[in-house]
Amino acid sequence: MEQVFITKSTLKRLTKKINLIEYLEENLPEHERLVKILSKPEKKSLLEYRQLIEDLDCLIKYQRDARTFVSDSKSRWVYYEMKNSSYHLKQDCPHLLSDYINYSIPIEIEDQDIEDYRDFFKSKKEIFDEKPDVFFAMVEIKFNVVIKNIKKVHNDNSGHDEMKNYKLELPDIILTRIDSLITEMEIYRISNKEIENLIKNLGFGTHKARYFNENGESLLHIENENSPIYLWHQYKNKLKYLIENYFISTLNPDFKFNRKILEQCGIDCCRTCMATVKTHMITQVLTHTL
Predict the structure, then answer these.
(1) Which of 42, 125, 182, 214 is paired with 3 by a 20 to 30 Å CA distance?
(2) How far, in Å, CA of 135 to CA of 278, rounded?
(3) Distance between CA 222 and CA 228 in Å, rounded?
(4) What DSSP state is assigned to residue 79?
(5) CA distance to 171, 207, 229, 282, per residue, from 194 (Å)
């Protein structure tokens, strides 16, 4: 069984392909304290992530019904799903160690225009990077909408280089960090009545929680840095990140996965890795010939 390497972002995409019917929340660290912090879907997603790390065969055993599985092609991100995923043969592959970058698709873009906008953005990305105002004007002309901002997500070294850092943190150390963070979150939640009520009402669905500004516009809390829900959302993301690290540290610290199963899921070998293998094979043939 050949083992290969993938990035954390690829593994998280794979969690969308499985659906655990039965799962034990007791497998989550500090599970009793998570009751008032994470929603059931969030906890289920973490446990599906855990299952994948432990045994990639679950992609076959717990695969979602193809009729109900929804592609990410209509998601609000420029780069999506397995279309941009690959596995790597070497730990030092530059693409495995590269940063993860993505861009949000503005809410003003209609669902039916997402694919056109995605292609448009990719073709005009250099303009967006150098002159965003010019890019926004071009979007207005082409799609007849006015946008003012595009969220950029930049995560350093999503690949195997991060895994080396995980090895430096033993499971017990990560558990201590999880405990400290939950304590900090609990203190913040009860710091005053307004914050406590906001988190009680909106804390489980922070990604979609909205409010009305003074002009009557409906806006997302997570885009307002002054909102307690924005901070709670950041807290939750950090907590989930630590829990994922804990699973990696305890179950699969080398972050290696079954090549055959990955290929069955439509993930192909990185072109750089494949080119390296071919070059090596040609060199060997020539060496033996000479």
Answers:
(1) 42
(2) 41
(3) 9
(4) S
(5) 36, 19, 11, 68
**How much is the pLDDT for 165?**
41
Distance CA 270, CA 93 (A): 9
| Contact between 161 and 112 (Cβ < 8 Å) | no
pTM score, whole prediction: 0.73
Residue count (the chain): 290
For every residue of 106-157, DSSP letters joined together read: PTTS-GGGHHHHHHHHHHTHHHHHH-HHHHHHHHHHHHS-------EEEES-
The H or E element containing residue 208 is: none
> Which DSSP category does 98 fall into?
S
Q: Mean pLDDT of successive 10-residue segments in the chain (290 residues)?
A: 85 82 86 94 93 85 49 68 73 71 88 92 93 94 91 60 52 95 97 96 94 92 94 96 93 90 86 77 62
In a domain, 212, yes or no: yes
Cα 202 from Cα 209, distance rounded (Å): 6
Q: What token pair was written down for 88?
A: 């790597």
Would you say residue 168 lies in a domain? yes
Instruction: Identify whether 192 is part of a domain.
Output: yes
Please give the structure tokens belonging to residue 50.
């855990």
Domain of residue 275: give its range.
3-104+151-289
Name the domain count of the chain.
1
Could you tell me if residue 137 is inside a domain?
A: no
Residues 35, 126 contacting (CB under 8 angstroms): no
